[in-house]
Design goal:
The protein contains 9 helices and 26 strands. It has 399 residues and is α+β, with helices and mostly antiparallel strands. It has 2 domains: 83 residues, Fumarylacetoacetase, N-terminal domain (SH3 type barrels), CATH 2.30.30; 290 residues, Alpha-Beta Complex (Fumarylacetoacetate hydrolase, domain 2), CATH 3.90.850.10. The strands form 6 sheets. Strands 1, 2, 3, 4, 5, 6, 7, 8, 13, 14, 16, 17 and 22 form a 13-stranded mixed beta sheet that branches. A 5-stranded mixed beta sheet has the order 9-26-25-20-21. Strands 10-11 form a two-stranded antiparallel sheet. The protein is globular.
């Protein structure tokens, strides 16, 4: 079968990695995607068409190898898809079950967008400097919960918790966060050995869209002094396909200027870069779906312009105290926002902490998510050559 190149951002130059349950199979397989077709990479490995070590159930087999192997695997799979692929290895996307693409080891989420941090600071500290005093000295972050990372299209059950003193119940301020995630592979690093900023490509296989769901009322009551806990640990949604860093070579842009203050040495690198990726957040309600309406875009932002701290800086800072990396570690950039009313990556910002409802095409209004609402995250390189797999999550009531 000939798999023609496509112009939908999932063409021969992309070749994302994923894990799928294929029709008639009883176990997952490592796959790639071309347009709306899924190629069974694990099956191709068993048939001797690509390296044998790719015969695995998920992206884990790639994460266990070195960066040089990621490149050779990508070359081999590219040669496969541009040739005559055996029919048995090709399936329609609609006929496969997309699974969590890799086993998540540790999960760390950052707070790397200056516009987002500023917006939040103005909401919560209107009479003070919106940015914490140390924000431009280091990439702030928190350790999340890897066991509640789920693949796109998994329902998110509304969390219950402590909303205030003597106030326990379901979150009434359920929010989404438009983020990029980055996926760590390669041999585990040694305890006490920081990873240099310019070694990012030895450790990051690729990126994917990520939604760090947030119960803002639970978060607000619990977060001082130790930061997010139950307000975020109930669910984090990621895309089903990991976009290789090699596919984003043409999307690289200069990192933001950081002169006041100049970052410490471990956060400066000659090979650092941002990613010119256009992102959007859309909402869909039960009424919209009943009327056949598409998800309504409420925000657009660009990762290259919206992130003050780059992925390389986040990785370097994460390990700067000697903390280890291991295959399957997941990092999140934090909400990506730009300056402007329609360029904020969370409902907290878009609704001004619930004081300015968003107007939807059906006449409905939203400040935070209601049961049955869906959040949809999308992304694409600005030149249109690479489309990031979407993240979709629907809010389900707690039984």
């Amino acid at each position: 079968m000939r798999l023609d190149d496509t112009d939908d951002g999932f063409g021969h130059a992309h070749l994302p990695w994923g894990s799928c349950l294929l029709p008639g199979a009883d176990a997952p397989a490592l796959c790639t995607r071309v347009g709306d077709r899924v190629v069974d990479v694990a099956g191709a490995a068993r048939a001797g068409l690509v390296p044998a070590w790719l015969a695995g159930p998920s992206v884990d087999v790639l994460l266990a190898r070195r960066a040089a192997d990621w490149g050779s695997a990508r070359v081999a799979v590219h040669q496969l898809v541009v040739g005559d692929v055996p029919d048995r290895l090709v399936h329609d996307l609609a006929d496969v079950v997309e699974l969590l693409p890799f086993t998540v080891a540790d999960y760390v989420d950052f707070y790397a967008s200056e516009a987002h941090a500023t917006n939040v600071g103005r909401l919560f500290r209107p009479d003070d400097d919106p940015l914490p005093a140390h924000w431009k000295h280091l990439p702030m972050g928190y350790h999340g919960r890897s066991g509640t990372v789920v693949v796109s299209s998994t329902d998110v059950v509304r969390p219950h918790g402590i909303r205030g003193a003597d106030d326990v119940g379901p979150s009434e301020r359920l929010d989404v966060e438009l983020e990029l995630g980055w996926v760590v592979g390669g041999p585990p690093t040694r305890l006490g050995r920081p990873v240099p900023i310019d070694a990012v490509e030895d450790h990051v296989l690729g990126v994917l869209l990520l939604d760090d769901w947030s119960a803002r009322d639970l978060q607000a009551f619990e977060y001082r002094p130790l930061g997010p806990f139950l307000g975020k640990s109930f669910a984090t949604s990621v895309a089903a396909w990991v976009t290789p860093m090699e596919a984003l070579q043409d999307a690289r842009v200069a990192p933001p200027a950081q002169r006041d203050p100049v970052p410490p040495d471990h956060l400066q690198g000659v090979a650092d870069f941002g990613l010119d990726l256009d992102l959007e957040l859309a909402l869909s309600t039960p009424r919209m779906r009943a009327q056949g309406l598409h998800p309504h875009v409420v925000s657009r932002a660009n990762a290259g312009r919206g992130l003050y701290w780059t992925i390389a800086q986040q990785l370097a800072h994460l390990t700067s105290n000697g903390a280890t990396l291991r295959p399957g570690d997941l990092g999140g950039t934090g909400t990506i926002s730009e300056v402007g009313e329609a360029s904020a990556g969370s409902l907290l910002e878009l609704s001004h902490d619930g004081s300015v409802p968003l107007e939807l095409p059906t006449g409905e209004r939203r400040t935070f998510l209601e049961d049955g609402d869906e959040a949809v995250l999308r992304g694409r390189s600005t030149d249109g050559s690479v489309t990031l797999a979407p993240v979709v999550g629907r809010v389900a009531p707690r039984a």
